[in-house]
Amino acid sequence: MHGGRGSGKRPRPQLGGSVPRRGSPWGQRGREGRGMELEGRVALVTGGSGDIGTAISDALARAGCDVAVTFVGNEDGAKATAGLVEAAGRAALPLALDQRVESSIEDAVAAVVDRFGGCDVLVNNGAWNIGIPFPELDRLDAETWDRVLETNLRGPYLLARALAPHLRAGDGGRVVNIASVGGLMPGSSSIAYSCSKAGLIHLTHCLAVALAPEVAVNCVAPGLVEGTRMALRLPEAVAAGARRQAVLGKVGSAEDVADATVLLCRADTITGQTIVVDGGMPGAMNFG
User: What are the backbone dihedrals phi and psi of residue 251, each rounded to the nearest 5 degrees, phi first?
Assistant: First the structure.
């Protein structure tokens, strides 16, 4: 998909190794003097066909980014998300990506660089899970464990590694990992999912050190996200319990997660941090 103000391609950096540094507005204040300027930047959002990925892609486009949107099986969903990006006047690129497969990651990065000439923002939102209650250890077999960890932890690392030369190429880049409050405390749809998100949160810390000073790396940890397909699959008693625990009397939406993501992309002195978006559940307050 093409179109919008961002349809022009930047000079193409070389894949891998060192990349010639280019000018970047990360060191420039936005038009209203609040945070970094996102106009004309390029973002790659994984899991862009889902509810949260769609909201993040839309928010980044409205902030001025061209957006590459990845999907595994839901191509129609990714194209719909790309349509929102283009409706905001930015260029969009839907891409098939299996982040468990290194060659698929390399192909996706090459496609983004070929289309846009570089990449400034990586949002690791793509994830996979199957609900298995914690006590049912026999159901969580090695194959399921490996698939969850390969998708939710290994994949984001490989994406960050592949994009690192391009994220570093300007005056700064951004990585935002989308984790979960299940990575902060033992409570989630499965032990594997909870552990994968705990690992993603610590990967955020490690990459913040590894990619400094050129790239800021942060994390958003949502709790229950109203209106998403995952939330709708929960028993109503579970969802109601999450709302009751939230001191604000409400939990987050996909748009709230997107707003936190854009905030972290704009911020120029925040790195290695996790923002919890859950309406204020006391159990997660000591961890964010």
Answer: -105, -175
Q: How far does the chain reach from its first CA to its final CA, in angstroms?
A: 38
The pair of structure tokens assigned to 126 is 């793509």
Cα(87)–Cα(140) distance, rounded to whole angstroms?
42
Percent of the chain with pLDDT over 90: 69
Rounded CA-CA distance 270/246 in Å is 26
Q: Sketch out the chain's domains with CATH numbers.
A: 34-279 (3.40.50.720)
CA 288 – CA 275 distance, rounded (Å): 6
How is residue 184 written in tokens?
């902060």
Asked whether residue 33 carries a pLDDT value surpassing 60, the answer given is no
d(CA 138, CA 67): 41
Please confirm, yes or no, whether 157 is among the known catalytic residues: no
Of 150, 163, 53, nearest to 105 by C-alpha is 163
Q: Which residue in 118, 170, 193, 262 is the catalytic one?
A: 193
The alpha carbons of the chain give a radius of gyration, in whole angstroms, of: 18
Q: Which residue has the higher pLDDT, 223 or 275?
A: 275
